Amino acid sequence: MRKHMLFIIVLCIFTSVSIAQKPDKLSSNQIYEKVQKLNFLGSALYIAAHPDDENTRLIAYLSNNVKARTAYLSLTRGDGGQNLIGPEIREQLGVIRTQELLAARGVDGGQQLFTRANDFGYSKHPDETLAIWNKDEVLSDVVWAIRKFKPDVIINRFDHRTPGRTHGHHTTSAMLSMEAFDLAGDKTAYASQLSDYDAWQPTRLFFNTSWWFYGSRKKFEEADKSKMLNFDIGVYYPLKGLSNNELASIASSQHLCQGFGRLSTRGSQEEYVEFLKGDFPEDKSNIFSGIDTSWNRVKGGKAIGNILTNIEANFNFVNPAAHLPKLMEAYGMIQNIEDEHWKAIKLVEIENIIQACAGLYIEASAASSSATPRANVQVNIEALNRSNANIKLNSITSIIDKKTTTKTLSLLANKKENFTLDVNLATNDYSAPYWLYEKGTLGMYKVEEQQLRGLPETPRPAVLKFNLEIEGEAITITKPVIYRYSKPDKGELYQPFEILPEVTAKFKDPVIIFSDNKPKEIPVTIKAGKDNLDGYVTINHPYSWQVYPKKLKLVIAQKGDEATLTFTVIPPATQSEGTLIPEVFIGDKKHTLSLNEIEYDHIPKQSVLLPSETKVVRLDIQKSGQYIGYIQGAGDAIPESLQQIGYDVTVIDPASIDAATLKDFDAIVIGIRAYNTVDELKFKQKYILDYVKNGGNVIVQYNTNRRLKVGAGELAPYKLSLSRDRVTDETATVEIIAKDHSIVNFPNKIEAKDFDGWVQERGLYFPNDWGAEFTPILSMNDKNETPKTGSLLVAKYGKGNYIYTGLSFFRELPAGVPGAYKLFSNMISVGKTQVIKQPQLKN
Ligand SMILES: [Zn+2]
Fold first, then answer.
1. Cα angle vertex 83, ends 78, 85, to 5°?
2. For residue 557, what is the enclosing H or E element?
3. Residue 765 Cα, ligand 1 centroid: separation in angstroms?
4. 85 — phi, psi (to 5°)?
5. Could you tell me if 654 and 678 are in contact, meaning their C-beta atoms sit under 8 angstroms apart?
6. CA of 127 relative to ligand 1 center, distance in Å
7. Is 48 helix (H, G, I), strand (E, B) or coil?
8. Which of 78, 416, 570, 718 has its CB 3.0 to 4.6 Å from that of 546, i.e. a possible disulfide?
9. How far is the CA of 170 from the centre of ligand 1 (A)?
10. Are 662 and 697 in contact (CB under 8 A)?
11. Which of 350, 272, 287, 353 is nearest to 316 (CA)?
């Protein structure tokens, strides 16, 4: 795939990490800091597993105090977590977290790298992690990252020696780093990578230890520190007016979808790294000890270093443009060094400095935020020299259509030049996140193109190179095409300029449940990516399902407009699962992608393309009870799922709960972590338990035992102790231990096969101790663990029933898992005898 993309990618390696966002507008202080970094030739790579694992204090310190090139390699994009700020989960959450990491690096000055590993959910042990990830592929990506970034020093966040102590992904990240440290320098390992990047042997490897890994501060004080380096990372940066820790807090507070917004701290703080392998450093306060991090490191670098260290020592904060002649001289010399690695890095750095010193503002903006492949786009150019330097624009090269436009223009002091340029988007590729185009496996993203692997984002396809002369010396400044606009309530905004399909299609729901034979009307929303869209839509469906009509005509006049077409879907008579895919035909081209737009204030707008589909499930299910009251906790989609199978669900405002509010419901279901997140429950618990006593049926989903809003002993009518017991293997065998209990017999008979097809995990935070009044229903366990019987507990209380379950219904029902629906229906039905009659339709 994408032969010509290579060309663009190679180019993007030489451009800076932050692409297509707000342009940098550097103050003298910031320019000076960039000059300091220009004079440091040393690199550190920090390795962990997830967005938020990274120690932003250490990354900020290395990048801003040591001045090192610093990168964070997060093996995953954090797709498996929860989203505290919006509805996106899985792949789309991974896109948000990718951008939050980039935002964090924008603050702490680091760069961001990834592997193809997918965060599939919690894992207790590296053995499980590596059974789901493809070890060879992830290891190959870590080796690739090392060969490409060429760190002198690698720092692991986690300890490779303690499997089982923390998340399996964590320990695995450290174990793979240990292996990759040796393999990156070995020319026989992953030899196909060597056509792009040379083998590279980092000098040393550390583990970023702390008291936490020792269990207590006291134990850490007593630990042998002969192999540890430590340094004070609480430094103050007068140029920024910030302490390193304040900078680090701002960086980690970018992880908003994880609720990481936090207070900043100041003052002295020791950081420890434990030496693992490589050359032991002589100076135990400097991780780069013994490594030449000056310009002398590269052949021909000494003369460059002489010029640049002189600029640093005599920096003119009032008129940085005074340095332009010397900077241009150094720029010319850097172009001639043989070391391709440092040449590429330092050219980008010095280009940015030269631009900033000249107050040179160059912007390339499109009139709209997106266009289709092969479209012609008019790009508005603004070019402005805000210094007295002698600057000429000679030509502009558009990379995507390989077109150079001659333009002889002297950029006079503070005289703005505006003109337009026609760019043809000469590509068949889209600009959406590259790792989501193709379906991967549970543990791995599928990315065929080696050059794309590890990149945080898809390289911007529309890029212009401005060929200039500054003080008589040639220089090229690279700018991606962006989209700039304003909103009355937000001010000026920048967006990436996207190349998107001419049409995309999307079902409203990712899963549609049919609890009987009745046909359903299923809407498909079609969005036009260009004007005058004319074609038709069909639905690809499994053989046993029927869809009418066979095709529907589609006409949309305006780009950006949507049309909703409705198809009738008839399920088969018996239990069945399948996938519906909308296929939009425009001319002879078939389109099957959906466009998912993600907009938050703290990250650039994301346009995500995913294979468009919806899962359809025909359930063979019986129900007893109809009216459900739902008390939301931390947020889950159980109410929508129960509505899909025909229950009447009322979401209850916790503040309104009293004896009268609850009494008419057939069951009250309490959302995940409600007792951790809903303050009112402290005062309303008595009404909930009274409702049970008077004959009601309460189903409580998982809570964590820390920070419960109700007092000890008040969660349930009887003794119930929550624990951290969980079963993370979603295929773990489930044994029904209370075979005669109505909850596994009425109205649906629950059998072993009802635990097939579960996703991500069985359940979490199971109680591990309970009163004799409770009946444990199920037993299950992860490999090499003792059976856990607390996943589903039922107790009679007064005339009603109290049910506590840590089973992950909040994942299984939205995923359309038939057995989970049956079991949930049975939980609602406990204490009832009357089955609701299903309408029997023939099809
Ligand atoms: Zn983590």
1. 135
2. none
3. 18
4. -120, 0
5. yes
6. 17
7. strand
8. 570
9. 6
10. no
11. 353
Please report the pLDDT score of residue 11 as a whole number: 39
Alpha carbon of 51 to ligand 1 centroid (Å): 7
- Mean pLDDT across 467-482: 95
pLDDT digits (tens, 9 = 90+) for 181-222: 999 999 999 999 999 999 999 999 999 999 999 999 999 999
Kindly tell me if the per-residue pLDDT of 782 is higher than 90: yes
Say how many Å lie between the CA of residue 166 and the centre of ligand 1: 9
Burial 752-768 (b: 16+ CB within 10 A, else e): eebbebbbbbbbbbbbe
Residue 270 is inside which H or E element, if any?
A: strand 270-278
Distance between CA atoms of residues 328 and 335, nearest Å: 11
Q: How many angstroms is it from 237 CA to the middle of ligand 1?
A: 29
Distance 213 CA to ligand 1 centre (A): 14
* Over residues 315-325, mean pLDDT: 97
- What six digits make up the tokens of 716? 């349930």
CA of 121 to the centre of ligand 1 (A): 10
State the pTM of this model: 0.89
Taking the centre of ligand 1 as the mean of its atom positions, its distance from the CA of residue 252, in whole angstroms, is 13
Pick the closest to residue 334 from 356, 303, 297 (CA basis). 303
Burial 298-325 (b: 16+ CB within 10 A, else e): beebeebbebbbebeeebeeeebbbbbe
Token match 């694992």: residue? 53
Candidate from 13-17, 361-365, 753-757 with smallest mean pLDDT? 13-17
Surrounding residues of ion ligand 1, Cβ less than 5 A: 50, 53
Which residue reads 């807090």 in tokens?
Answer: 249
Candidates 284, 155, 169; CA nearest to 207 is: 155
| Residue 89 pLDDT level (bands cut at 50, 70, 90) | confident
Question: 122 alpha carbon to ligand 1 midpoint, in Å?
Answer: 9
**How many residues in the chain?**
843
Q: How far is the CA of 49 from the centre of ligand 1 (A)?
A: 6
Q: Which residues contact 447 (CB under 8 A, 6 or more apart)?
A: 116, 434, 435, 453
CA of 125 to the centre of ligand 1 (A): 13
The answer to whether the CB of 264 falls within 8 A of the CB of 252 is no
pLDDT at 193: 97
CB 361 within 8 A of CB 383: yes
**Could you give the CA distance from residue 101 to residue 107 in angstroms, rounded to a whole number?**
10
Is a pLDDT exceeding 80 seen at residue 741? yes
pLDDT over 80 (residue 391): yes
CB 345 within 8 A of CB 301: no
What's the rounded Cα separation, in Å, for the pair 169 and 176?
Answer: 10
CA dist 46 and 617 (Å) reads: 44
What spacing in Å lies between the alpha carbon of 375 and ligand 1's midpoint? 42
What are the tens digits of pLDDT across the range 64-83?
A: 999 999 999 999 999 988 78
- How far apart are the CA of 264 and the centre of ligand 1, in A? 21
**How far apart, in Å, are the Cα atoms of 94 and each of 73, 363, 441, 457, 608?**
15, 30, 15, 12, 11
Predicted confidence (pLDDT) at residue 381 exceeds the cutoff of 50: yes
Taking alpha carbons only, the member of 762, 754, 741, 751 closest to residue 808 is 762
Report pLDDT digits (tens) over 786-803. Answer: 999 999 999 999 999 999
**Contact, 287 vs 44, CB < 8 A?**
yes
> Closest by alpha carbon to 125, among 180, 75, 175?
175
CB under 8 Å to 776, separation ≥6 — which residues? 737, 738, 770, 789, 790, 792, 793
CA 631 to chain centre: 29
Tell me whether residue 361 is exposed, middle or buried, using C-beta atoms within 10 angstroms of its C-beta: 0 to 12, 13 to 18, 19 or more.
middle
- Cβ(105)–Cβ(611) under 8 Å? no
